[in-house]
Structures are given as C-alpha cells and as structure tokens.
C-alpha cells in the first residue's frame, strides 16, 4: 500500500488544485489510477473537465495581474523554496511515481532530483531576464526592448516523466511571471498533485499554479486551446496530439512549444570505443523501460563490428531484472498500460515477419501482462515499422550500415528529429556527422544528454521550442519595443 510507505501522507492528493483550493467534481465523479506493476488501483482521483478548466484559467488570469509585477527576486525565492521542499520530500515523491508509473525506484529518485533541477535553475534565471537598449536612427529618440511574461499558460504533460516534464514547464513559466494551468496525464496525476501541494507549501500564491486532473483530455485540451485568455500552450507528448493542439491554438494565435515524438538513432562506427558504445546504447535504450522520447529507437552499427556488438550488447541486456519498481532488485519495470504492451508486440511481430531475428526477449514477460522482456532484434531493414515508428518499449532493433554516408542517410530518414547519438573517435567525423544529423540534440560518445542546463527540444515533426537552459525562458516571454521620442 502506497499510503503505508509515505512519510508525509498529505502529499497524496486526490482532487484538482485550482486557485489554491483542492477541487472535486461536483457529482463526485472520479477515475482510477493504476499501479502497472501489479495492475491494481492505487487511488481514485477527481475527474474534472472543461468547466473546471475554465475556472482554473480565470483564476490563473486573476493571479497573473499580481504575479507578473512581483519583483523577480521575490518570485525567485518562492521557486527556490519549492525546490528545497521537492528535494526534502524526494523519497515520498519517488514512491508516488513508482507506484503510478512503474519505473524502478532508483530511476524515480533520479527523476525527482532531475525535475527539481529545473525549479532550481529557473529560480536563478528569474533574476536574469534582461532587456536591451538599442542604437538609433535619429538623435532625438531612444529605443528599448523589455521582456514581459506571455500571460496564462496551458500545459499538458505526459505519463513517462510524471515529475520532470511538469517542472520544466511550470518553473520557467513562473520564473518569467506567467501563471499556469496544468493538465497532467490521467495515468500519473498523483505526482502532479504532490508537486502542487509542495508549491502551495512554498508560498506560491493561489491561482499561480493550477492543476486540472481528468480523463476527458479532449474537453480539457479544447478549453485550454480555444480560450483567448490562454496565451501559450506547451505540450509534451505524441506528434499526432501536438499537431491537433497547434491547429486548435491557431484560432487564437497562441504561442506554442511542442516536445513531440522521436525516432532516435545511435550510430556506432568501427572506430568507436565499443565498451562505451555498448553501455551508452544500453542507457539510451532501456531507461524507463524504453519509454522516453529520446530513447534509442534504432541502433545503427557498422558492418565490421556488427557481430561483436550484437553478442556483447545482448549479454548486457540479459542482466536486466524485470519486476515491481519498488523492489530494490528490479532494474526494469512494467510498461504503462496493456495497450502499450500490445503496441510493442505488434512492432516486434512486424519485424519478425520481415526477417528480423530475436537475440534475446521478444515476448510478453511472465511477471504479468504489463511487462515486456528486454529485447534485442538483429537483421533489421528499413522497411520494417520499427525503422519508422517510436517503439516506446524495451526493444532494441540493431541495423547494419557500411559507410558513414549510408549511416547519416539512414539516421535522417524519418520525419522526426529529437535526439541522435553517435560513437566514434574520429574528430573530423564528429563534426561532419554532428552537422549532418537533422536533430535538435546530438550526443557524441554520450547518451545521458539531459539536464536543466541544456536546450531540450527537436526539429522537424519532433516539435518546436526548447526547454531548460537560458533558451527555455524565452518561450514564456514576449519582446516589447519601447520607442522614446522627443529626447
Ligand atoms: C522525454 O522523454 O521527453 C524526456 C526525456 C528527458 O528529459 O531526458
């Protein structure tokens, strides 16, 4: 039982958080939250909809009037306090996450720290929102640029990182002086509500950070995207949904930031340090049981080292221990839903029907029907669905290439462009390939590329805008030009 494991039971909330109040559906409607490791209900949460979303937007607009003029130093202190509270409650937040999302507890602990790092970073950046004084065309005028918050932000976040995907949107929004209405994934609302509870405890004023929980994503999304009070939509999730949100947001010309699907290649050249490449590919593929947007979706290995890579990589994959994430023995947890498992099965079957061979895994695991075995597939070709579609599961398809040119062409042969990785010791190749890869982020001899200090985001149909780093704040700011005449 989750309740019995928590130090601070008040972090476990079951209602939406709007204008500083915990809000239930007025007819008592709730939805179930499952622990995918055991397939059991762990909570019933208020099922809110469009009406409550409107209420949250109005609260956010009212709060915006005061929040936007609060001195940056004061906003920064409140964010800093929120950061401290998240770190103090790391263990409880990690437990909540593992129970609702399934990832192993060590990864949940890591995500809480990772998520908190965005709050810390943007607490600092809040004090560094500078304007400009520009040169002039005539002597009697002065031209200035100031930066102002865009206004009320609508944020929609996914289940795969129930904490960090929230903080990396909410923290920059609040730092910039915006207020926010968040709709977290209905699979993982508890982490979002715990974060709201801590933000409230930190003293962030009512209405600044609102959370609407519910299963009617269409209705909540429609209110967020059509309401003219909302000035920006930020979304992490699938490309299909991202396009829809952009379309809906266009009617009121909202700013949008989209962090969408990926199809990350890992290019491993014959001159690579193979030990490092194997470990890097392992991390890039199997983090969160393969359920991240920057997970290695395709491992491309030069033909001369293909066999050695396959046998050594497969040996490492055989060491994973599948199980309930709360057990310290488990090194990989379940997938989020049965539907997710069925999607992985279908992609593996498609590859096998076209000649792929299984080196290890390949089926639903006997731990329960939410678990899929860590899998390595060889003899892949580019007509297989796994070459084009994001698998979002623990399946590593290994492709073969002969030349650098072929590797780059294969890597770029996708509508996605989020993250790519390469392993090589050749410095000329690092530049050539680094520049040729059509991706927003490229890891070179490194696959653990994420942090609060880097601009996370993609090109092509992987989205627009950047999260984290100094660039991450710009997406929440408008540039205003002030022209002073008659000097
Ligand atoms: C994602 O899957 O989009 C997030 C991964 C990360 O922040 O490292």
TrEMBL record:
GO terms, biological process: gamma-aminobutyric acid catabolic process
Active site, UniProt feature: 259
CDD domains: ALDH_F5_SSADH_GabD
Pfam families: Aldedh
Matching InterPro entries: Ald_DH/histidinol_DH, Ald_DH_C, Ald_DH_CS_CYS, Ald_DH_CS_GLU, Ald_DH_N, Aldehyde_DH_dom, Aldehyde_DH_Superfamily, Succ_semiAld_DH
Sorted UniProt keywords: Oxidoreductase
GO molecular function: succinate-semialdehyde dehydrogenase (NAD+) activity
Domain Aldehyde dehydrogenase: 22-481
Entries under Gene3D superfamilies matching the protein: Aldehyde Dehydrogenase, Chain A, domain 1, Aldehyde Dehydrogenase, Chain A, domain 2
Family stated for the protein in its record: Belongs to the aldehyde dehydrogenase family.
Official protein name in the record: Succinate-semialdehyde dehydrogenase/glutarate-semialdehyde dehydrogenase
Species the sequence originates in: Marinomonas foliarum
Taxonomy of the source species: Bacteria, Pseudomonadati, Pseudomonadota, Gammaproteobacteria, Oceanospirillales
């Amino acid at each position: 039982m989750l309740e019995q494991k928590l130090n601070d039971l008040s972090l476990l909330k079951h209602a939406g958080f709007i204008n500083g109040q915990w809000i239930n559906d007025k007819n008592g409607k709730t939805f179930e939250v499952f622990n995918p490791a055991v397939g059991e209900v762990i909570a019933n949460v208020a099922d809110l909809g469009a009406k409550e979303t409107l209420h949250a937007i109005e609260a956010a607009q009212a709060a915006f009037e005061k929040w936007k003029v609060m001195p940056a130093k004061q906003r920064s202190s409140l964010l800093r306090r929120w950061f401290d509270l998240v770190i103090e409650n790391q263990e409880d937040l990690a437990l909540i996450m593992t129970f609702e999302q399934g990832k192993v507890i060590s990864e949940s602990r890591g995500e809480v720290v990772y998520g908190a790092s965005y709050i810390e970073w943007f607490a600092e950046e809040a004090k560094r929102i500078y304007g400009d004084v520009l040169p002039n065309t005539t002597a009697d005028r002065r031209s200035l640029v100031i930066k102002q918050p865009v206004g009320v932000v609508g944020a929609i976040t996914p289940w795969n990182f129930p904490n960090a995907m929230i903080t990396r949107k909410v923290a920059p929004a609040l730092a910039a002086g915006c207020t926010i209405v968040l709709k977290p994934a209905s699979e993982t609302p508890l982490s979002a509500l715990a974060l709201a509870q801590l933000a409230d405890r930190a003293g962030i004023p009512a209405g600044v950070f609102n959370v609407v929980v519910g299963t009617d994503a269409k209705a909540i999304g429609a209110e967020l995207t059509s309401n003219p009070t909302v000035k920006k939509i930020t979304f992490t999730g699938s490309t299909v949904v991202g396009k829809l949100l952009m379309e809906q947001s266009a009617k009121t010309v909202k700013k949008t930031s989209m962090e969408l699907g990926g199809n990350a290649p890992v290019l491993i050249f014959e001159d690579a340090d193979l030990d490092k490449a194997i470990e890097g590919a392992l991390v890039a593929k199997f983090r969160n049981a393969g359920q991240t947007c920057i997970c290695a979706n395709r491992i491309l290995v030069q033909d001369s080292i293909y066999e050695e890579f396959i046998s050594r990589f497969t040996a490492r994959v055989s060491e994973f221990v599948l199980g309930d994430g709360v057990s310290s023995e488990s090194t990989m947890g379940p997938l989020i839903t049965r539907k997710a498992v069925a999607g992985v099965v279908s992609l593996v079957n498609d590859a096998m029907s076209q000649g792929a061979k299984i080196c290890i895994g390949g089926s639903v695991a006997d731990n329960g029907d939410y678990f899929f075995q860590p899998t390595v597939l060889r003899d892949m070709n580019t007509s297989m669905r796994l070459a084009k579609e994001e698998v979002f599961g623990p399946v590593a398809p290994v492709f073969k290439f002969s030349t650098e040119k072929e590797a780059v062409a294969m890597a770029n042969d996708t509508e996605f462009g989020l993250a790519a990785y390469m392993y090589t010791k050749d410095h000329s190749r690092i530049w050539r390939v680094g520049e040729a890869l059509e991706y927003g982020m490229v890891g070179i001899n490194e696959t653990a590329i994420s942090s609060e200090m880097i601009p996370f985001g993609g090109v092509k149909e992987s989205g627009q805008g950047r999260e984290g780093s100094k660039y991450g704040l710009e997406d929440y700011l408008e540039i205003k030009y002030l022209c002073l005449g008659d000097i």
